[in-house]
Amino acid sequence: MTEQFSQKIFPTTQLEDADGDGHNPTLNPTMGEIIGKRFSRRGFLQGSLAVSAIAATVCPAALLSAPNAARAAGGSAFSFAEVEAGVDANHHVAEGYDADVLLRWGDALFSDSPAFDPTKQTAAAQERQFGYNNDYVGFIPLEGSSEHGLLVVNHEYTNPHLMFPGLVKIVDGKVEQGPLSKEQVDVEMAAHGGTIVEIRKVDGKWQVVPDGKLNRRVTASTEMQLTGPVAGHDRVKTNGDASGKKVFGTLNNCAGGVTPWGTYIMAEENFHGYFSGELPAGHAEAGNYERYGVPEGGYEWANFYDRFDLAKEPNEPNRFGWIVEVDVMDPTSVPKKRTALGRTKHEGAESIVAANGKVVFYLGDDERFDYVYKFVTDGSYNPDDRAANMDLLDAGMLYVAKFDEDGTMAWLPVVHGEGPLTAENGFASQADVLIETRRAGDLLGATKMDRPEDVQPNGVNGKVYVMLTNNTKRKADQVDAANPRAENAFGHIIEIEEDGGDFTAISGKWEVLLKCGDPSVADVGATFSTETTKNGWFGMPDNCAVDAAGRLWVSTDGNNNKATGRTDGLWAVDTEGDARATSKLFFRVPVGAEMCGPLFTPDDETAFVAVQHPGDGGEDWDGHGRPSYYEDLSTRWPDFKDDMPVRPAVVAITKVGGGKIAV
Ligand code: FEO
Ligand code: CA
Ligand code: CA
């Protein structure tokens, strides 16, 4: 979800601090005044080379030798002609590639799905159609194929000003968004959640298999089960659910994952925005909710559903903020909220099988000054017995990351009874620790990060990549080695190397792979390699993928403005050898959109990307120059028809004539 919402213009749904205004009140020690201490000499030189304003500070010999050295070592691991950065109404992909729209908001998933009619939207229709604002994209091969499988896609949130005709009015020259009807709220709820849909490649082009037996929509109303240590706890019981185990719906599913045993993980991120009303005076959850920013009141659902009203259902927010697991092989299965993985504003949950067979999930809590986590299952993955793995996520150890100044790190156990996580501090059990995961991290002294987004293990080189999207609220006296820039507008990427190459290790090393932003502006302090062109740099890393060759691809959220001169997109980022920290633009989105996904099929011949909230904004683009809403859109991507609104969509990128991407 982008941070650049038009909150001032569309106040009813746009979350003021979507993706993180910062709700961490604690003062874990920052390390202070050590910017640059962990810059490698080489990193400093390369970063400086692109900065003509300070080139005089760089040794002339280095100016000559660094690019040559990169070429001598083979340069970039990616072979494609870079796209030119810019802003316009359409998407663009590198020459020699096709970028085909596969699934748009409203597209049919079943043989009985109504045709998409934006002027006659109903919840019943939306429940049979592809949802809104596609974010995470996963691919679960069927029979081991890279050309036939299940596409699983999260639908993170809704943009009513782009979705519904007649909702926005110009009053006294100002744009105002009217209240939503119950039917529109129901459409919103049906447009959330996720899609599971069978797809197949036919003659080199991906197609949806209509009415595939496993096709399914998960929504904000689907029955789910709370499992693990929090299931049945008093703090998750409500008037509607005395068991404390039965929850309806999943909210704000941002990134996610596919487990080694082929289930679909949906991470609940900014759940706070769906709740309104006030807790009863003196309610015990007040401190808990403050730490999570509940309520934000961005959505109008509480007008029609009591469970989103804190005055009526004060425990309901404790039933959100979890990692949800869906068994995609049974379309009637009840999705499970796996509480052992903690309750945060989860960006995603990418996993890897460690050498000892345990499965390790990496988790970012996307808010300013919040933490990076990992979860290690107690049990081991059994590749020969899918059923034996189905409850692995109910038992394991949750850790929170502490990044130290010297480039080492520790994974601190988030376990009741250890250290400060005791009854004295208000934790009577592990259930309390998990419901208030953030406060547990505060007390443990975890490192406050610049909005942790995707955290991706790389099974080829053994490293782990942490996307840190930005944090403009970090002050100069709050910088530390792992968050080295004050007012960090462009974010950075950290590379972790677990001790002994063991993903279950409780300690490791880390370094900053890349500080993002325009390297031609000295004050930004970006550290892209000198091979990186004016098209190749980016800011706001958000989602990422590692392809089968072990190469890193980064997608971004928030580059859409005049200052950057570029939309969001998908960038190929070298991590190895002399080309390390070289970035190239492979695909870019239409105006107003954020780039989500990305995901490579196991054969590396397809990259799926999700174009989220296209057309959301246009004031900053000369081609529109004013607010964008249903009747006056900055783009009508991807249909470009006057009677069709802009539609978030998943795009399949393939090489013309076939073959592996960027090889
Ligand atoms: Fe939904 Fe952290 O982006
Ligand atoms: Ca984001
Ligand atoms: Ca994201």
UniProtKB/TrEMBL annotation:
Chain residue ranges for the region called Disordered: 1-25
Database matches in PANTHER family: DUF839 DOMAIN-CONTAINING PROTEIN, SLR8030 PROTEIN
Protein name: PhoX family phosphatase
Compositionally biased tracts (Polar residues): 1-15
Domain of life: Bacteria
